């Protein structure tokens, strides 16, 4: 059977299955008001410590941090002259972080100083994103019984799908590059350097205001880009994976949405998680590099 | 499609439900979580910067150094091998030329020797032949001499018997000269010499 024939056969089976399920179970709506999809992202205090209460997001942050440090230190301690596959991958990642992201955007002296920061940002966000696609028993609203133990339901969650986490990282980045810029050029020099070269006269004042706000807006764009991407990814996986079926009460819809859910899951894990970490780290390096660069 | 069209209304109705189920918490930053994140991030950065990154960098640099070194070494080795090969080639050429020289010299000397020995052999053979010729001639001469004296005495005896007189020395000599002159001894001597 040729590839084309296989694809068409698969599609035909898929369509026939949808029709069959729709005919057998009926295509009737039964709106479900009890299930709230956004509650998947709700944070309940597990250990109450006032504002510093431990919740799901804190747990994910801690897991991500521990995994980042644990994995990297473990691999760093078994670096060999003849690398195995994992080491090759980590070395590739390390070279990407050090040579492409960091050294590609700033001079070597500054790169040496800021590489640990940029590297940690990349790895921390990457691990945060990746563990977001592993189902963990975090849903304390819905519990299931396992040999008498009340286990929270397994659910997908990502620390980076909560605005606070990208925001605080973006804040650290924002403060870092502005401080570096001021240290390199002085307050007045740094503010002046916000105006692009070649702009003079009254236009300069107008452009300065624009550039200043654009600089402040980086705080928003940097954090929201990561947060919204991961939240949207998780939401769409959630909807395709069953939330839509539950909300509308149309069981047959699951035949359509579940394969899409699988495809989207793979897309998120394979591309978005790494891409967003890469973008965050690269922008950090670019901001730091341009803040101290002579010409803007 | 009616199903798709109803999604916004469902989400809206979900939002307008009880206060607890609103979606605004999704975009509301929490100070506590931010502090936790900062703490975890700072610790992670410290630990990575102290225990992970330097070791990885060291290993990578070490590998790079080793690769550079081994490439250099390989380059050096290749150059050395090339030089050695060139040297060998030169030596080989020299040896070949030398051996050719030796062979040709040997051939020349062999030729020379051969012709010399051939000449010597020829000479020797000729000498031997000459000697043999001389010997045989001397022998022939001796035999002819003997024959002659024998014949002479026979002739003298026979003549004395026939003439019943004793010949004087002069008569004998004349008689012998006449008789022997008629016999060609040279024929004998040449046949005997061959």
UniProtKB/TrEMBL annotation, chain A:
One of its GO terms (cellular component) is proton-transporting ATP synthase complex. InterPro entries: ATP_synth_F0_asu, ATP_synth_F0_asu_AS, ATP_synth_F0_asu_bact/mt, F0_ATP_A_sf. It is found in: Cell membrane; Membrane. NCBIfam families: ATP_synt_6_or_A (TIGR01131). It comes from the Bacteria. This is ATP synthase subunit a. It holds the Pfam family ATP-synt_A. It comes from Patulibacter medicamentivorans. Belongs to the ATPase A chain family. The keyword Cell membrane applies. The chain crosses the membrane at residues 7-27, 57-76, 114-134, 154-177, 198-220, 226-250, 262-288. GO terms for molecular function: hydrolase activity; proton-transporting ATP synthase activity, rotational mechanism.
TrEMBL record, chain B:
Pfam families: ATP-synt_B. The keyword Transmembrane applies. Keywords: ATP synthesis, Cell membrane, CF(0), Hydrogen ion transport, Hydrolase, Ion transport, Membrane, Transmembrane, Transmembrane helix, Transport. One of its GO terms (molecular function) is proton-transporting ATPase activity, rotational mechanism. Gene3D superfamilies: 6.10.250.1580. Belongs to the ATPase B chain family. F(1)F(0) ATP synthase produces ATP from ADP in the presence of a proton or sodium gradient. F-type ATPases consist of two structural domains, F(1) containing the extramembraneous catalytic core and F(0) containing the membrane proton channel, linked together by a central stalk and a peripheral stalk. During catalysis, ATP synthesis in the catalytic domain of F(1) is coupled via a rotary mechanism of the central stalk subunits to proton translocation. This is ATP synthase subunit b.
């Amino acid at each position: 059977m040729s590839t084309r024939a296989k694809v068409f056969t698969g599609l035909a089976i898929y369509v026939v299955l949808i029709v069959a399920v729709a005919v057998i179970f009926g295509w009737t709506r039964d709106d479900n008001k009890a299930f709230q999809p956004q509650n998947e992202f709700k944070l309940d205090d597990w250990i109450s410590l006032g504002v510093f209460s431990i919740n799901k997001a804190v747990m994910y942050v801690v897991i991500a941090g521990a995994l980042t440090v644990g994995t990297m230190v473990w691999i760093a301690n078994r670096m060999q002259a003849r690398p195995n596959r994992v080491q090759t991958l980590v070395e590739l990642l390390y070279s990407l972080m050090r040579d492409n992201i960091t050294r590609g955007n700033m001079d070597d002296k500054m790169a040496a100083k800021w590489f640990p920061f940029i590297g940690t940002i990349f790895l921390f966000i990457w691990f945060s994103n990746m563990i977001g696609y592993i189902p963990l028993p975090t849903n304390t609203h819905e519990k299931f019984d396992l040999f008498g133990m009340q286990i929270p339901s397994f659910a997908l969650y990502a620390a980076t799908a909560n605005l606070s986490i990208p925001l605080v990282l973006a804040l650290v980045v924002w403060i870092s590059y502005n401080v570096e810029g001021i240290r390199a050029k002085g307050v007045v020099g740094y503010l002046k350097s916000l105006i692009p070269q070649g702009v003079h006269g009254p236009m300069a004042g107008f452009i300065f205001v624009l550039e200043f706000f654009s600089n402040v807006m980086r705080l928003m764009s940097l954090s929201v880009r990561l947060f919204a991407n991961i939240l949207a990814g998780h939401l769409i996986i959630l909807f395709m994976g069953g939330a839509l079926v539950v909300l509308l009460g149309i069981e047959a819809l699951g035949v359509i949405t579940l394969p899409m859910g699988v495809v989207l899951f793979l897309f998120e894990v394979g591309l978005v998680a790494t891409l967003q970490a890469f973008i965050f780290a690269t922008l950090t390096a670019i901001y730091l590099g341009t803040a101290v660069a002579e010409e803007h | 499609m009616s199903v798709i069209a109803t999604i916004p209304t469902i989400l809206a109705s979900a939002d307008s439900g009880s206060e607890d189920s609103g979606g605004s918490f999704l975009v509301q930053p929490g100070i506590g979580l931010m502090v936790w994140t900062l703490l975890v991030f700072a610790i992670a950065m410290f630990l990575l910067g102290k225990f992970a990154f330097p070791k990885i960098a060291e290993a990578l640099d070490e590998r790079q150094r080793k690769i550079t070194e081994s490439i250099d070494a390989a380059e050096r080795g290749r150059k050395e091998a090339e030089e050695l090969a060139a040297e060998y080639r030169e030596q080989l050429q020299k040896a070949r030329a030398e051996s050719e020289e030796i062979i040709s010299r040997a051939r020349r000397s062999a030729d020379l020797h051969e012709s010399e020995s051939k000449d010597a052999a020829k000479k020797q053979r000729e000498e031997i032949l000459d000697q043999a010729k001389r010997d045989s001639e001397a022998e022939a001469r001796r035999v002819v001499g003997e024959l002659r004296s024998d014949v002479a005495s026979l002739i003298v005896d026979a003549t004395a018997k026939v003439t019943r007189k004793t010949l004087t020395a002069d008569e004998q000599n004349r008689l012998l000269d006449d008789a022997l002159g008629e016999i060609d001894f040279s024929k004998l001597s040449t046949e005997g010499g061959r």
